[in-house]
């Protein structure tokens, strides 16, 4: 490791190894049945804190900060301890690589979206997409299902792959685990509805901060994955990304809309209430064939992330 790099950083080769291993094996179903994914443990802790402290008579914003601090300290501490558990370098490196895979989601995201592509009928496609989106799916037509799948694919490319890899690189296992804790907290309590607005304020703001650079990197990787047509994706991403209510989610989503020359976003129903959302891109509404193209773009974007890690690994040794 170069002298000017903090010791907390991971070797890019370690991050690359975790990315490759996770892409190959994911989190096997048999393992999940025996040992639920660690993200569910974080969710359980957050649910207990929310049930206990998110009450009208309490100072909700302050208790939301306490909840987030608990999640960060517990996960960061676990990451630190696991990073030093053996002291035997080859064994410790292998352990870090294996544990690093649980914070990444290349395989699972691909499989979930592929299930939408291969669904035999519209009802099956709706059921498949319901596993990766929060909106109401019962009334979605084929184009609506395709749009939901592509939006989830693009946003989760950042949240489930680029951002975790980014913080794994910068902060080792503690950085990876803390990011997953904050991102999970944002998805559970970082909402604008009255019940969550104050309690989830800290989680939402910290998640915005942690995704600030990764989201833009994720958008750039999706754009570059289109090869010679990258200029169209870049134009749409640059023009539309900031339309999103989130300062980060619009970057990969607009990039995907531009890369595939389709239209994403627009009105969607959540719990029976229609929400007006911005539109990304100027193309036609997507079809299932476009989801298949989106998966191909996603695989190339993942490969580009691997290339970045290889380049970083070569520079790391200088």
Largest sheet: 2 strands, antiparallel
What is the mean pLDDT? Answer: 90
Count of domain modules: 1
Radius of gyration, in Å, reads 20 Å
| Proportion of residues in helical segments | 55-70%
Count of helix runs: 14
What share of the residues does DSSP label as strand, in percent?
under 5%
Biggest sheet strand order reads 1-4
Distance between the termini: 9 Å
> What is the chain-wise order of helices and strands?
HHHHHHHHHHHHHEEEEH
Question: What report would you give on this structure?
Answer:
With 318 residues, the protein is mostly helical. The protein has one domain. It is 69% helix and 3% strand. The protein has 14 helices and four strands. It has helices spanning 12-25, 29-34, 38-53, 60-83, 89-100, 106-117, 122-130, 142-189, 194-197, 201-210, 212-224, 230-240, 250-260, 288-316, and strands at residues 264-265, 268-270, 273-275, 279-280. The chain has a two-stranded antiparallel sheet. Strand 2 and strand 3 form a beta hairpin. Helix 8 runs antiparallel to helix 11 (212-224). The longest helix has 48 residues, at 142-189. The model has no long low-confidence stretch (mean pLDDT 90).
